[in-house]
C-alpha cells in the first residue's frame, strides 16, 4: 500500500490534497448554508454566526471561524433538521452512538455510509479480501450504522454477509452492574453463533469484528483445537481505540501464526464512527513496532490533533493532542468536533498525503469516566 | 530505571505496552513495567496443567526445603529484578516509593513474608490438620489411622489479582507452590515488587520458573486472570467482595472491619489495654484489613476515645525515609480528599464526635499525594453510620454499645479481639458466624498466628475432600 516517495513528489501530493480539501469545503459550505439546499439546523445557526459562511469560508483554514461543534446538538429530535433540503424526499436512515443512559446522539444518513465503505473497499488488498468472498459481521448492530455499512461493503465486493448481533448498551450495563458472569455468558452466546456460521459451509473468507470479539473467537477456536486459519478467514477488518500495537502484534504472532505472507491472514485496523466514516491505517507490521497510524477519509472528513488546552491550535508533528474532527459531506457538515480520543500527530505519506494520528486512546480528560472497549 | 517484563510460564515477554511506576512524591520513574493484554493470559492458561505436573514431579518435602532457601534469599540477597538487580534495601526503597508506605514499614514487612516461607512445613501441617502431604500429590492415600482419604486438586494453579496498597497480603498466596500448584499473579500497578522478588527468590532457590506467570496490566488483565482461573484470589473493596460472593472459584478479600470488644467484666480496667488498642489501630499505618477500625464497649467509651486520640491524634506526616514515619501516603490523586469528604459527612450525624480534630487538620494535601492523619471518632450508638466504616489509614471509632447487643450490631468482622473472662460471652463469640478470626483475650487484632487459617483455609479452597474407595480388581 505505502511506498517511498521522493520529497518533491510527496510535496506535490500534499499540495494537491490540500486543494482538493479546500474545494470540498467550498462545495460543502455552499450546499449546507444555501437557502435552497441547506439543512434546517445550519440555516438557523447561520443567523448566530458573526460572519457569512457563504462568502467568508473558502478554505479549510476558514473552518476555524466556526465555533466548536457541541455534541449535545446531536441529541434528540427532530432529526430531520440535519437533512439538507437538497436531499429532501430521499429515504433516510437514523444511526445512533452512545445511548447507554439518556438520549443518544443521532445522525441522519442517506448514502454516506455506503460511500464511506465503498471508498474503504478500495484500500483492501484483494489477495486477502477476495472479491466475491462471503463475510462474517460479528459486532454491534441495532441502531448503529456498522452492520448496514459492513453488509454494504461485502455486497459492494460481491459477497453475502452473515451477521451476528451484539448489543453494546447491554454490555455496558452488565459491566456497570458488575454482572461479570452474565457478561461472559453474553460473549459466549455471540461467539457460539459465529462459530456456527464458520462451521456451516458458507465459505466465509472475510470478517468484521472488534478486538475483544476477535480475542474471544480465537480463544474459542483454540479450545476446539483449531485456529483462525482453519476457518478459512484471510481478511479481518477491525476497529476501536483498544486496537493497540501490542494487541496487533499478539494477534499476528500468536493467533494468526505470523505476518500475512506467512499465515495468509491480513488484519487492517480502522478508526471511525458514525460522524466521520472510516480512517484507514498505514500497513502495520513488526518493522515499525506494530505502530498504528490512522488517516481520515479526506476530503470527506478531516482529523486534526489539537492542543489539549487550545483546540484551535494543531500540535507539532509527533506531539500528543486531542482529536478534532471536521466532516464535509453533502449529508453532514460538522466543523471542529472534539472527539473523546487523543493521540499523536503523524506526518503525511504517499498513500495518504495529509496528517494522520497514532496511539489513539481515550482522551485523558474523560478516560476515567468512560467504559471503553466493551465489545 | 528498571525494565520489568511480563513473565509467561517463567519466560520474559517484552510487551509493546508499558506502564511507568513512579515515585509517589517526586513523580520520578522507578520502573517500566510491561503490560499483558487479556488474550495472552487466556492463551497461556490453556497450558496451566503443565505447572501442576512439573511441581508434582518434585516431592513436597523438597519443595518446602527450597522455599526455606527462598525465604533467606528474599530477605537478604541481591536478586535479579527485570533488567537489573535488587538488594533488600532497594526493595524497601522502591516499594515505599511506589506505594507511599514508609520505608521502615516496607522493611518490617519482609520478615513477615520470610517467616511464612521459613515455616511453610509447619503451616501446611497445621492447615491440613497433619495430613500426609503425599495425599495432596496423588489425590488419595491412607492415613495412619487406616482410613482412605482423598483430596482432589481443584485447579492446576492458584491465580491472584493483587492490590497496590497492602504489601501484607502476599503471605496468602505463598503456600500455593509447596502445595504443588503453579502461580498466576496480576500485581497491583504500584506494587510489582513483591511478586517479582518472590519469583526471583523462588527460582534462584531451585523452584522451576515454568510454574510462574506474572501478568502486570490494567483491569482487562485482572478480568482475564479471574475469567481463566479455576481458583483465584482477588483483593478489593466491599463491592468486589459482593461481586464474587458465592462464587466457589474466587476467594475475595476485602475490608476487614476488625474490632476490639471490651467485655463488661474488664472495661473498668480499659487503661490496661490502651497499648493494645493503639497497636491494633495504628501499626502499618492502619492500612491492613486486620487493623482495628472499631473499639466497642458498654461504658467509658468517651474516656477511651479521648485517651486513644491523645496517643495517635498528634502524629504528624513525615517523609517516607524517616525512621519515625508512621503514616502512609495516599498516592492516587483525589483519593484522600474523597475519603475525607465521606468521613466529614458522617461526622455531622448527632452523637458522633471527632476526638482528634483538636490536634490539627486531618487531611494534609501535598503536590503529588495526600495524607490522612489518625482519627478517633466517638459514637454514642452502634447505629451511627460511621460505626460501620473502615478506611485505609489509622482510623477507628469507639462505639458505646451494651454488651448484650454487641454481637448483633458489630456486623462482619475479620479479626475480633474480645477481651473478657465472661464464659457465656466467650461462648457467644465462638458461635458468632460473622466473625472470622477470633482472639479471646488481650491480643492485638494485627498479631496473626500463621499456623491458623486466614479468611478460609486455603487447603479447603484449593482441594476437595471427597470420597474415594479402592478395591482389588
Structure, described:
- The complex is a heterodimer of chains A (375) and B (473).
- By secondary structure, chain A is an alpha/beta fold.
- In chain A, 32% of the residues lie in helices and 23% in strands.
- In chain A, the strands form 2 sheets. Chain A has an 11-stranded mixed beta sheet with strand order 4-3-5-6-7-8-9-13-12-11-10, with helices on both faces.
- The relative contact order of chain A is 0.13.
- Chain B has 473 residues and is α/β, with parallel strands linked by helices.
- Chain B has 2 domains: 265 residues, Aldehyde Dehydrogenase, Chain A, domain 1 (3-Layer(aba) Sandwich); 183 residues, Aldehyde Dehydrogenase, Chain A, domain 2.
- Helices cover 33% and strands 22% of the residues of chain B.
- In chain B, the strands form 7 sheets. Chain B has a 7-stranded mixed beta sheet, sandwiched between helices. A 5-stranded parallel beta sheet of chain B has the order 12-11-10-13-14, sandwiched between helices.
- In chain B, helix 1 runs parallel beside helix 9, helix 3 packs across helix 8 and helix 11 crosses helix 12.
- The radius of gyration of chain B is 23 Å and the shape is globular.
- The termini of chain B are far apart.
Per DSSP, the total helix count of chain B is 16
Oligomer: heterodimer
Q: Averaged pLDDT of chain B, please? A: 95
Structural class from helices and strands of chain B?
alpha/beta
- First-to-last CA distance of chain A: 29 Å
What is the highest CATH level, the class of the largest domain in chain B? Alpha Beta
Stretches of chain B where pLDDT is under 50 for at least 5 consecutive residues are none
- The CATH homologous superfamily of the largest domain in chain B is termed Aldehyde Dehydrogenase, Chain A, domain 1
At the fold tier of CATH, the topology name of the largest domain in chain B is Aldehyde Dehydrogenase, Chain A, domain 1
* Unreliable parts of chain A: 369-375
Number of spatially distinct domains of chain B: 2
Biggest sheet character of chain A:
11 strands, mixed
State the helical fraction of chain B. 25-40%
Strand content of chain B: 15-25%
Architecture of the largest domain in chain B, CATH level 2? 3-Layer(aba) Sandwich
Neighbour order of strands in the largest sheet of chain A: 4-3-5-6-7-8-9-13-12-11-10
Note the gap between the termini of chain B: 64 Å
- From the alpha carbons, calculate the radius of gyration of chain B and give it in angstroms: 23 Å
Amino acid at each position: 500500500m505505502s511506498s517511498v516517495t521522493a520529497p518533491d513528489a510527496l510535496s506535490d501530493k500534499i499540495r494537491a490534497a490540500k486543494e482538493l480539501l479546500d474545494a470540498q469545503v467550498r462545495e460543502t459550505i455552499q450546499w449546507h448554508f444555501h437557502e435552497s439546499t441547506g439543512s434546517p439546523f445550519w440555516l438557523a445557526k447561520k443567523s448566530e454566526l458573526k460572519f457569512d459562511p457563504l462568502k467568508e469560508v473558502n478554505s479549510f483554514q476558514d473552518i476555524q471561524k466556526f465555533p466548536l461543534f457541541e455534541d449535545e446538538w446531536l441529541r434528540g429530535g427532530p432529526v430531520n433538521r440535519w437533512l439538507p433540503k437538497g436531499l429532501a424526499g430521499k429515504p433516510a436512515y437514523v444511526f445512533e452512538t452512545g445511548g447507554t443512559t439518556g438520549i443518544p446522539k443521532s445522525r441522519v444518513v442517506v448514502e454516506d455510509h455506503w460511500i464511506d465503505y465503498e471508498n474503504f473497499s478500495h484500500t483492501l488488498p484483494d489477495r486477502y479480501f477476495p472479491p466475491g468472498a462471503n463475510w462474517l459481521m460479528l459486532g454491534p448492530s441495532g441502531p448503529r450504522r456498522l452492520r448496514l455499512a459492513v453488509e454494504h461493503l461485502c455486497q459492494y465486493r460481491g459477497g453475502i454477509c452473515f451477521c451476528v448481533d451484539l448489543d453494546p448498551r447491554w454490555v455496558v450495563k452488565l459491566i456497570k452492574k458488575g454482572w461479570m458472569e452474565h457478561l461472559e455468558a453474553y460473549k459466549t452466546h455471540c461467539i457460539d453463533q459465529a462459530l456456527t456460521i464458520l462451521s456451516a459451509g458458507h465459505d466465509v473468507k472475510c470478517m468484521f469484528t472488534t478486538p475483544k470479539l476477535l480475542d474471544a473467537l480465537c480463544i474459542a477456536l483454540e479450545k476446539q483445537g483449531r485456529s483462525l486459519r482453519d476457518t478459512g478467514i484471510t481478511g479481518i477488518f477491525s476497529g476501536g481505540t483498544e486496537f493497540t500495537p501490542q494487541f496487533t502484534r499478539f494477534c499476528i504472532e500468536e493467533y494468526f501464526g505470523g505476518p500475512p505472507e506467512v499465515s495468509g491472514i491480513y488484519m487492517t485496523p480502522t478508526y471511525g464512527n458514525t460522524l466521520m466514516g472510516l480512517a484507514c491505517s498505514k500497513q502495520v507490521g513488526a518493522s515499525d513496532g506494530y505502530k498504528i497510524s490512522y488517516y481520515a477519509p479526506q476530503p470527506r472528513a478531516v482529523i486534526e490533533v489539537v492542543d489539549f488546552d487550545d483546540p484551535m491550535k494543531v500540535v507539532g508533528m509527533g506531539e500528543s493532542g486531542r482529536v478534532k474532527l471536521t466532516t464535509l459531506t453533502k449529508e453532514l457538515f460538522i466543523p471542529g468536533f472534539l472527539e473523546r480520543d487523543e493521540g499523536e500527530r503523524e506526518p503525511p505519506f504517499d498513500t495518504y498525503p495529509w496528517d494522520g494520528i497514532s496511539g489513539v486512546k481515550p482522551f485523558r480528560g474523560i478516560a476515567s469516566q468512560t467504559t471503553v472497549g466493551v465489545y | 530505571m528498571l525494565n520489568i517484563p511480563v513473565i509467561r510460564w517463567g519466560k520474559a515477554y517484552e510487551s509493546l505496552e508499558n506502564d511507568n511506576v513512579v515515585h509517589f512524591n517526586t513523580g520520578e520513574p522507578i520502573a517500566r513495567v510491561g503490560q499483558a493484554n487479556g488474550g495472552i493470559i487466556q492463551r497461556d492458561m490453556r497450558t496451566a496443567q503443565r505447572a501442576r505436573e512439573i511441581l508434582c514431579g518434585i516431592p513436597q518435602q523438597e519443595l518446602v526445603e527450597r522455599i526455606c532457601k527462598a525465604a533467606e534469599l528474599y530477605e537478604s540477597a541481591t536478586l535479579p529484578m527485570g533488567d537489573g538487580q535488587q538488594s533488600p534495601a532497594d526493595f524497601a526503597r522502591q516499594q515505599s516509593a511506589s506505594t507511599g508506605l514508609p520505608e521502615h514499614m516496607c522493611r518490617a514487612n519482609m520478615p513477615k513474608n520470610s517467616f511464612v516461607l521459613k515455616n511453610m512445613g509447619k503451616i501446611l501441617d497445621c492447615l491440613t490438620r497433619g495430613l500426609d502431604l503425599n495425599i495432596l500429590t496423588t489425590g488419595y492415600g491412607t492415613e495412619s489411622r487406616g482410613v482412605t482419604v482423598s483430596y482432589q486438586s481443584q485447579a492446576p494453579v492458584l491465580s491472584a489479582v493483587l492490590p497496590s496498597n497492602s504489601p501484607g497480603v502476599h503471605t496468602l498466596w505463598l503456600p500455593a507452590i509447596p502445595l504443588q500448584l503453579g502461580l498466576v499473579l496480576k500485581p497491583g500497578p504500584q506494587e510489582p515488587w513483591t511478586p517479582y522478588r518472590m519469583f526471583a527468590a523462588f527460582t534462584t532457590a531451585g523452584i522451576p520458573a515454568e510454574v510462574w506467570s506474572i501478568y502486570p496490566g490494567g483491569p482487562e488483565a485482572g478480568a482475564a486472570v479471574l475469567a481463566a482461573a479455576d481458583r483465584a484470589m482477588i483483593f478489593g473493596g466491599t463491592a468486589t467482595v459482593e461481586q464474587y460472593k458465592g462464587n466457589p472459584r474466587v476467594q475475595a478479600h476485602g475490608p476487614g472491619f476488625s474490632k476490639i470488644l471490651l467485655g463488661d467484666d474488664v472495661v473498668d480496667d480499659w487503661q490496661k489495654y490502651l497499648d493494645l488498642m493503639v497497636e491494633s489501630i495504628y501499626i502499618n499505618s492502619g492500612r491492613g484489613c486486620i487493623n482495628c477500625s472499631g473499639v466497642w464497649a458498654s461504658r467509658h467509651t468517651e474516656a477511651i476515645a479521648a485517651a486513644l486520640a491523645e496517643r495517635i491524634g498528634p502524629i504528624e506526616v513525615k517523609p517516607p525515609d524517616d525512621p519515625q514515619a508512621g503514616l502512609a501516603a495516599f498516592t492516587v490523586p483525589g483519593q484522600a480528599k474523597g475519603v475525607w469528604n465521606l468521613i466529614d459527612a458522617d461526622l455531622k450525624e448527632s452523637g458522633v464526635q471527632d476526638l482528634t480534630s483538636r490536634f490539627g487538620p486531618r487531611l494534609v494535601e501535598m503536590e503529588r499525594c495526600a495524607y490522612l492523619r489518625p482519627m478517633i471518632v466517638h459514637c454514642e450508638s452502634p447505629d451511627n453510620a460511621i460505626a460501620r466504616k473502615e478506611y485505609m489509614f489509622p482510623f477507628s471509632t469507639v462505639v458505646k454499645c451494651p454488651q448484650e447487643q454487641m454481637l448483633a450490631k458489630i456486623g462482619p468482622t475479620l479479626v475480633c479481639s474480645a477481651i473478657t473472662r465472661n464464659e457465656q460471652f466467650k461462648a457467644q463469640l465462638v458461635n458468632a458466624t460473622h466473625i472470622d478470626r477470633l482472639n479471646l483475650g488481650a491480643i492485638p487484632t494485627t498479631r496473626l498466628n500463621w499456623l491458623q487459617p486466614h479468611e478460609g483455609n486455603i487447603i479447603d479452597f484449593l482441594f476437595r475432600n471427597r470420597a474415594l474407595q479402592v478395591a482389588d480388581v
